[in-house]
Structure formats: structure tokens, C-alpha cells
């Protein structure tokens, strides 16, 4: 049993020594150019966070805010050991009446837009209508000083005709 533990420690230590030599690491890059609209009108109040999903961890790459012209342009490089698997989370208040709430959804950036090297060959270009419903979309609000996720949308009431 002791020999097995020592062997595992040596194996783990040698992995870190080899990894620190950077021989297995490579540059990978991604680029995207997004434009946002809310009910057909340009919308710039959009925050985003780029994550690298590496099983079982989420690594934050960076956070960005849309420009005044409602666009988000990004190109970035990662020096990594495993393949970059980017997800872009978007946060906005399009069609939101409560100032303490926002809508969150994500876009998975396909591996066809992740390149080896320091410059992307092709950019993911999308026009995103924030008024639409997206897969994985949820509403989050600040209630009593705490962030609460998956807050249900208020029910629309029908006005009675008199």
C-alpha cells in the first residue's frame, strides 16, 4: 500500500515537472463579432463573460460589455494544455421591468472557431435578438441582497373591459 502511494506521488510530481516545461502547451485563439438588438432596435446594455469549460471546471477567461453601437468584438489567445471549449454568457435587461433583475443565457462557440496559433482565421459573427427566448435562458434577480437564479417571470394580467 505504501509503495502504491509513493508511486502515485512520484507520478503526480513528474506530471507537474513535465507540464511546467511547457512542451505540451499550445496557443489557441477564438474570435467573435456580435451585434445585439432588443425588439428590432440596437441595444448596448449587454454584459458578457467568456468561460472555458474544461471538465469538471469552468475557467473565466474575461468579462466584456457591448459597445455603444450595440456590438461586441473580441479576439483572444489562450496558452493551454487541453482544447479550449468556449462558452459566452450574456446578461441583459431587454423586456425587463424590474431594475433588480436580468436575463442570462449562453452561446456555445463551436470548435470550428477555435484555432491553434495566436490569430483566429474566422470570426463567429451573429446578430442576436435579445427579445427572443434561448435555450438555457433564465432570469436572475437580487432579492434581500442575494442573487437568486431562475426567478419566474411575472404573470401577464389581462385587463378587464368595463
UniProtKB/TrEMBL annotation:
<dbReference type="GO" id="GO:0009986">
    <property type="term" value="C:cell surface"/>
</dbReference>
<protein>
    <submittedName>
        <fullName>Uncharacterized protein</fullName>
    </submittedName>
</protein>
<dbReference type="InterPro" id="IPR038479">
    <property type="entry name" value="Transthyretin-like_sf"/>
</dbReference>
<keyword id="KW-0732">Signal</keyword>
<dbReference type="GO" id="GO:0005576">
    <property type="term" value="C:extracellular region"/>
</dbReference>
<dbReference type="InterPro" id="IPR001534">
    <property type="entry name" value="Transthyretin-like"/>
</dbReference>
<keyword id="KW-0964">Secreted</keyword>
<comment type="similarity">
    <text>Belongs to the nematode transthyretin-like family.</text>
</comment>
<dbReference type="Pfam" id="PF01060">
    <property type="entry name" value="TTR-52"/>
</dbReference>
Amino acid at each position: 500500500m505504501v509503495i502504491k502511494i509513493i508511486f502515485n506521488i512520484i507520478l503526480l510530481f513528474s506530471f507537474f515537472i513535465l507540464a511546467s516545461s511547457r512542451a505540451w502547451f499550445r496557443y489557441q485563439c477564438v474570435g467573435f463579432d456580435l451585434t445585439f438588438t432588443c425588439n428590432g432596435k440596437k441595444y448596448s446594455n449587454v454584459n458578457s463573460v467568456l468561460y472555458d469549460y474544461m471538465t469538471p471546471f469552468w475557467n473565466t477567461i474575461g468579462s466584456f460589455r457591448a459597445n455603444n453601437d450595440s456590438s461586441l468584438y473580441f479576439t483572444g489567445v489562450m496558452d493551454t494544455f487541453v482544447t479550449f471549449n468556449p462558452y459566452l454568457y450574456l446578461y441583459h435587461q431587454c423586456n425587463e421591468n424590474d431594475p433588480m433583475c436580468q436575463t442570462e443565457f449562453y452561446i456555445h462557440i463551436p470548435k470550428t472557431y477555435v484555432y491553434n496559433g495566436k490569430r483566429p482565421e474566422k470570426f463567429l459573427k451573429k446578430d442576436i435578438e435579445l427579445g427572443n427566448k434561448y435555450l438555457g435562458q433564465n432570469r436572475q434577480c437580487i432579492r434581500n441582497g442575494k442573487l437568486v437564479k431562475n426567478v419566474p417571470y411575472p404573470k401577464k394580467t389581462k385587463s378587464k373591459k368595463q
